[in-house]
Specification:
The complex is a heterodimer of chains A (about 190) and B (about 575).
Chain A lengths: L7 H7 L3 E2 L8 E7 L9 E16 L12 H14 L2 H5 L7 H8 L2 H12 L1 E12 L2 E10 L3 E10 L2 E4 L7 H21 L1
Helix pairs in contact in A: 2-5
Chain B lengths: L1 E8 L9 E5 L17 E10 L8 E7 L9 E7 L10 E7 L8 E4 L3 E2 L5 E4 L6 E7 L11 E7 L5 E2 L5 E2 L8 E4 L6 E4 L7 E4 L4 E2 L7 E8 L17 E5 L4 E6 L1 E4 L9 E8 L4 E10 L5 E4 L5 E3 L1 E5 L15 E4 L2 E4 L12 E2 L9 E3 L2 E3 L1 E2 L3 E9 L4 H10 L16 E14 L4 E30 L3 E22 L5 E21 L6 E17 L2 E9 L3 E7 L5 E7 L5 E3 L1
Parallel strand pairs in B: 5-12, 5-13
Antiparallel strand pairs in B: 1-2, 1-3, 3-4, 5-9, 6-7, 6-8, 6-10, 10-11, 14-18, 15-16, 16-21, 17-20, 18-19, 19-26, 20-25, 21-24, 22-23, 22-26, 23-24, 27-28, 29-32, 30-31, 33-34, 34-35, 35-36, 36-37, 37-38, 38-39, 38-40, 39-42, 40-41
The chains are: A alpha+beta (about 190), B mainly beta (about 575).
Chain lengths: ~190, ~575
């Protein structure tokens, strides 16, 4: 699958675009993009509806997280708990129904399953940094601290008031670009803040 | 055609009748003899001639009545002028009575010869009465130059001053336009520089001059049509008349003559040629002439020519209608043009002919000029020949070099195989006016499919900012070139080979390292395609066109929590286009 024509500019920036730290506005997520190795002027600005949580909201890895099921933080707590100690079925329950067969096949690969578990077991703390609304989807950006610190995005869909992970956006070139780039930007920002 | 003559004035009659109807003869002429009325006067007798259904006016004739008087008081007078209306003094004029009109065989009575005075005037006293031949001898003219002699037929009335009705014109003969001949030498073709197209050809012992001599000089002079004293026959108004002198000279056999086609008769038209016969005092047809192919001349037919010196003209008047405007291979019949395949036609080209097989004249077919191009003629069987396409191979190799960007991915030399069929032909070459041997080429050559798979250790592609991947690429190549044309022959360079080679790249994309530490898995591949076309001719190969690539990596990355991201990434610098 190629990039859609309407995303040509974004795709062109993929190779080397840099991004500025997110703004502090609470209801928008603002991303500034620059061509690689170019002066920091005249940025391409992408703005999404969402929230940024300053230094972040701590996520504890517990089955319920102590919060409501519809709560973002509670969902992430349950998710990380399943990744660390749960079974395949525990993980599948947190996925949107149309994705579960594909996830089951992937997770049935022991190497993949163990790779995923090892990743989450290596995490010392997780902080929710931002939430971005992308159509009907909510994308949560979480900073995982540990041996290999990384900011990851978690695309969610709300069904009947409950949140579920989804891979529906895995071939959406704009989502792939923006989510990856913004996660990298957040990671760079938190690293610079230390 | 019946023509009716009617006396309108003067009281004359036709054998006692006021009218007479006569049939036209084979030349379309009708004649009647009028007996004048008794009254004397100038132009006091009027006769009209007409025919049925004539939409124009009747022809009118006048005659003057003279009452005869004392025969001893009969005179003949007139004036002799040159072509510029300048009086010619010293011309000798004699009047000889003959026993019949238009005859000089028997002279009954002669009057004393007189000479024209300084004003060119003459008067012969005591002239004969009756049928008189007036002899005008220009040889005694006192003006510079040489003047011919003329004869006029006159009917004199006793006791009256008789004239010929118009000035007598004598033309100075051109000394330059003359050719002398004897019984054994001389002769040739006599021309008039100021009248292109005229010629008179005669040889030794062909001319008998007045007095019986075989030695003398023949001259020719152009005569103004309005100054010819004798009325041309058959309704002619010839635009070109010459006088051949000396008068009375006889040509045997007839001397071939050509005249300029001033009447615009169409090419190859047959017409009549005319001479003034002094014996009968009238222009007579001496035979046929044919208009030349280019329409410039009227040439006397074989066996036809000048019999006697004197006035000569050629060509029936051009008829009204479309004869002059009919296209080639058609002629005028009635009021329209009809096919005339008897005409000859040639377009002037060597490599056309009537049958299209061998050089020669073209022709008329169904009223249309026909010049069929002589096609190539097969002269031998086909032969197969290996063709040197090394230059073409170089072009293809250059175009596909995009896939050779690492030492581990060298492509083998491009292999081109093929066969060209050569057929020997004969070509008619217009410029060379000859046939040349050429080889006609047809056939095709194929480019064998070439497959090579190579790892690309030097290449690392950032895939979506998540992983770095390497490539294992396979390249295949195939296509065909076909050619046609002719080598040699009239043109040394008119063959060409054109074709296209397609290239495709397939392969695997292999995981090298993580950019995102949460990456669990990568699955993907490599793809690319393109084509290059090229042309070769005898001047070389070129016209390379097309694009190869770009090569792109496609795939899906599985991240922690089994979240996937996929897409396609074009590898920079992997597209080459030629124009």
């Amino acid at each position: 699958m190629g990039w859609p024509a309407g995303i040509a500019l974004v795709a062109a920036l993929t190779a080397g675009a840099g991004a500025q730290a997110p703004s502090q506005a609470s209801n928008t997520v603002r991303i500034e993009l620059y061509p690689d190795a170019q002066p920091r002027a005249n940025p391409v600005v992408l703005t999404f509806t969402g929230e940024q949580y300053g230094k972040g909201v701590l996520i504890s890895a517990s089955p319920s997280g102590g919060g409501k099921p519809s709560d973002d933080v509670a969902f992430l707590s349950t998710l990380f708990a399943a990744d660390v100690n749960g079974t395949i079925d525990d993980i599948l329950k947190l996925w949107d129904v149309p994705d579960r067969d594909a996830i089951r096949r992937t997770a049935s690969d022991p190497q993949a399953f163990e790779g995923n578990r090892n990743f989450y077991r290596g995490i010392t703390t997780s902080m929710l940094l931002a939430k971005m609304l992308y159509g009907p989807y909510e994308v949560l950006f979480v900073k995982h601290a540990g041996a290999a610190p990384v900011v990851k995005d978690y695309p969610l869909i709300r069904r009947n008031g409950s949140l579920y992970l989804t891979n529906a956006l895995q071939r959406d070139p704009l989502f792939v670009y923006v989510s990856t780039k913004y996660a990298q930007t957040l990671q760079q920002a938190t690293t610079d803040a230390k | 055609m019946p023509v009716t003559f009617a006396v309108k004035q003067g009281g004359g009659s036709f054998d006692g009748n006021p009218t007479v109807t006569v049939e036209t003869d084979s030349d379309g002429r009708a004649a009647a003899t009028l007996t004048l009325g008794v009254q004397e006067g100038n132009a006091n007798n009027l006769v009209e001639a007409d025919f049925a259904f004539n939409e124009g006016f009747a022809a009118a004739f006048t005659a003057s009545g003279r009452a005869p008087g004392d025969p001893t008081a009969t005179t003949i007078s007139g004036v002799v002028l040159d072509n510029s209306n300048v009086p010619i003094p010293g011309v000798t004029v004699r009047a000889v009575l003959t026993n019949v009109l238009h005859s000089n065989l028997t002279s009954v009575q002669s009057a004393t010869a007189v000479q024209t005075n300084a004003e060119g005037q003459f008067s012969i006293p005591q002239a004969p009465v009756g049928f008189v031949k007036l002899l005008v001898d220009g040889s005694t003219a006192s003006l510079p130059g040489k003047y011919p002699s003329l004869e006029y037929d006159v009917v004199t009335v006793a006791g009256q001053n008789n004239t010929v009705g118009q000035p007598i014109y004598l033309l100075a003969l051109s000394a330059a336009n003359q050719l002398c001949v004897t019984a054994t030498t001389g002769g040739g073709t006599l021309t008039i520089p100021e009248a292109p197209g005229f010629s008179l050809t005669f040889g030794p012992d062909q001319v008998t001059f007045p007095g019986g001599s075989k030695s003398g000089c023949v001259s020719v002079t152009v005569v103004h049509g309005d100054k010819v004293p004798m009325v041309p026959g058959f309704g002619q108004q010839p635009r070109f008349i010459v006088t051949i002198q000396p008068s009375g000279a006889v040509f045997n056999p007839p001397a071939p003559i050509t005249l300029p086609n001033v009447d615009g008769l169409r090419p190859r038209e047959v017409t009549e040629m005319y001479s003034f016969d002094h014996d009968i005092g009238s222009f007579v047809a001496i035979g046929t002439g044919v208009v030349s192919d280019d329409g410039l001349l009227i040439r006397s037919s074989p066996g036809v020519g000048v019999l006697k010196a004197g006035w000569h003209c050629g060509g029936d008047p051009n008829t009204s209608g479309t004869a002059a405007t009919c296209p080639t291979c058609q002629s005028c019949q009635g009021s329209g043009c009809q096919p005339d395949d008897g005409q000859s036609y040639d377009d002037g080209k060597f490599c056309t002919s009537c049958d299209g097989r061998s050089p020669g004249g073209d022709c008329c077919k169904n009223g249309t000029p026909t010049a069929i191009k002589i096609d190539e003629q097969d002269i031998g069987g086909a032969t197969l020949q290996e063709w040197d396409f090394s230059k073409l191979a170089d072009i293809i190799r250059t175009g596909t070099s995009v896939f050779e960007y690492t030492p581990g991915c060298q492509m083998p030399p491009v292999s081109i195989k093929g066969a060209i069929k050569l057929t020997g032909v004969k070509q008619c070459c217009e410029e060379k006016q000859d046939f040349e041997t050429a080889y006609k080429m047809s056939g095709s050559i194929g480019v064998d499919a070439i497959g090579v798979e190579c790892s690309v250790p030097g290449l690392s592609v950032d895939f979506l900012g998540l992983v770095k991947i390497g490539l294992v690429a396979g390249v295949s190549l195939g296509g065909e070139f076909s050619g046609s044309g002719i080598s040699g022959g009239c043109s040394d360079c008119n063959w060409s080979v054109d074709g296209k080679v397609g290239v495709s790249v397939t392969g695997k994309a292999v995981f090298i390292t993580k950019i995102d530490p949460s990456v669990i898995r990568f699955e993907g591949g490599v793809k690319g395609d393109g084509s290059v076309s090229a042309s070769c001719n005898c001047q070389g190969c070129g016209n390379l066109k097309g694009c190869l690539g770009p090569v792109s990596v496609f795939g899906t990355v599985t991240l922690a929590n089994f979240i996937s991201k996929g897409g396609e990434v074009v590898i920079p610098g992997t597209q080459i286009c030629t124009h």
